[in-house]
Design brief:
single chain, alpha+beta, Lipoxygenase-1, Phosphatase 2c, domain 1, 8-stranded antiparallel sheet, 9 helices, 28 strands, EC 3.1.3.16
Length: 506
């Protein structure tokens, strides 16, 4: 059963006379939510406030040109009550709840963008998630082209810091299942803070082309907090490489395996590639935990299989990066593979430059962009960097077969746009523990000023990281962190498997 299977419907405040006219023909149309037929919504009550124009200055902060709303409405939605299929939103049933979130849903101003289908939403935070709420019903026809609607979402428990939004377009009975182009969802928290969750994609079959997207999407929190004006398409060229820990080479004669789009060395594995059916690019890296070797377990099998499944998901056109990671982890665990691994995966919609990322552990990536206001040559600045997620020093977050392993839900999530000229550098801790941001940025700048492409830049970064790992006197991110963690002076790099990927946006 899909998430829409257990929903209640909510009435929208619309003009009373318009509601009276439409209710005769729409009130008794049944609605299917995730394949479950709900009864006619005779007892839903609607407010009488007429729709009012959107505040244009507010919209300009959250919607790019071409997606401005034609009107805005406000609705209070209630979760499904125990023992009943539908709950009235009448004021005679007050909700004694902890906090309220205000959710603004913006439909794009594109041909065929609107839909008459209702939708459902769930907010997921660091401490839990809300129930699933319905947004609109068959009568309301909320999500018209260029529209903007606000909903009050009552939350009866503390869910912590909001991390993602799951939204689903529900199916109608006896009606064409129209596609919906969702621009973004904006959420205002109980304290007044505003958070942006961009989508810029179709849910369902596009009404004006052959594009067919999923009916359900996970929306990730935008890194910069506001949408990019005039998002532009990008084309991405990538390369990857991995080398094993030098002791593994001496002891077991292990070598790195590097092919177009996939490779591994030791317990590190990576992938990169594009979907054959759409303009989707993806890349990822995983680092299996070596200490399982003492129990006769090869964590490299887990990291390699995880990256292979992620690669398959991307190739098949799965755009939702959270689903890519979750479904790949589910496969690995169902296959009975033992051990544990860190993982970092990102996707880029090349039509808009929209990047989504999931990171669990101490692998990660950074995005370098051309520095503003710098003349002559090619200079870069760090636009974004993932956090290294550790329980304590040397103990990263990791998914695995054991009861104490972390979950995909524990990952850091990121969403923002990349542009022509940006360079994504991704790597395992073999890269990030041995090279600081400045080291990576300087090497990329020198390489790009020589006109080098992704493959030679990857090779140069691998060599630089390897040299740093073998230098006992060098100050590295790892030695500085160890000095702080143990209150003793450490120096030198950390010998390890090293995986590096470089993606150049043009």
């Amino acid at each position: 059963m899909s998430f829409c299977g257990l929903l209640i419907s909510a009435a929208t405040r619309a003009n009373a006379s318009q509601h009276a006219a439409t209710s005769l023909c729409c009130r008794h149309l049944p609605v299917v939510f995730g394949g479950v037929l709900l009864p006619p919504n005779d007892h839903l009550r609607s407010g009488s406030c007429p729709p009012s124009p959107c505040h244009l200055s507010q919209l300009s902060r959250f919607a790019p040109p071409g997606a401005a709303s034609s009107f805005s409405t406000s609705t209070t939605v209630m979760p499904k009550a125990a023992g009943s299929s539908l709950v009235s939103t009448s004021s005679s049933q007050p909700a004694l709840l902890h906090d309220n979130f205000v959710v603004k849903v913006v439909t794009g101003n594109l041909r065929g963008a609107g839909t008459t289908a209702p939708a459902s939403i769930q907010l997921i935070g660091t401490h839990g998630s809300t129930q699933r709420f319905a947004l609109g019903d068959r009568e309301s026809e909320l999500f018209t082209r260029g529209s903007c609607h606000s909903f009050d979402i009552p939350v009866g428990k503390e869910i912590g810091q909001l991390r993602r939004v799951n939204i689903e377009k529900c199916k109608l009975v006896n009606a064409m299942d129209e596609g919906w182009y969702l621009q973004h969802v904006e959420v205002q928290g109980p304290s007044g803070e505003k958070m942006l969750f961009p989508c810029n994609a179709w849910l369902g079959q596009s009404d004006c082309g052959s594009y067919d997207g999923p009916n359900e999407r996970n929306l990730l929190l935008a890194h910069h907090g506001k949408p990019v004006e005039n998002p532009a398409p990008v084309s991405i060229a990538a390369s990857g490489m991995a080398i094993p820990h030098p002791e593994k080479v001496l002891r077991s004669k292990l070598k790195g395996y590097n092919t177009q789009g996939y490779g591994y060395a030791g317990e590190d594995a990576y992938f990169y590639g594009k979907a054959s059916s759409c303009n989707l690019f993806g890349m990822g890296v995983a680092d299996g935990i070596y200490m399982w070797r003492k129990l006769g377990i090869d964590s490299g099998a887990m990291s390699r299989t995880l990256m292979q499944k992620c690669r398959e998901k991307i190739a098949s056109g799965t755009e939702d990066v959270f689903k890519v990671m979750q479904q790949s982890v589910d496969y690995v665990q169902a296959a009975g593979l033992q051990g544990s691994t860190t993982a970092c995966v990102l996707t880029v919609d090349q039509r808009t430059g929209q990047l989504h990322a999931v990171n669990l552990g101490d692998s990660g990536f950074l995005v370098l962009g051309p520095a503003k206001g710098v003349e002559g040559g090619c200079s870069y600045e760090v636009k974004f960097r993932t956090n290294q997620l550790e329980h304590k020093f040397g103990c990263p977050y990791q998914i695995g077969h054991h009861a104490c392993s972390d979950k995909v839900e524990d990952s850091d999530l990121a969403s923002f746009h990349v542009h022509a000229g940006d360079i994504i550098v991704m790597g395992s801790d073999g890269l990030l523990d041995n090279l600081a941001e400045l080291d990576i940025m300087t090497e990329v700048m020198l390489a790009r000023n020589k006109g080098l492409t992704a493959a030679p830049i990857t090779q140069r970064l691998i060599k630089l990281a390897f040299d740093a790992s073998m230098d006992r006197s060098r100050s590295t991110p790892y030695s500085r962190a160890a000095t702080q963690a143990f209150d003793m002076v450490y120096s030198g790099g950390k010998p390890d498997d090293i995986a590096v990927l470089v993606a150049i946006c043009s």
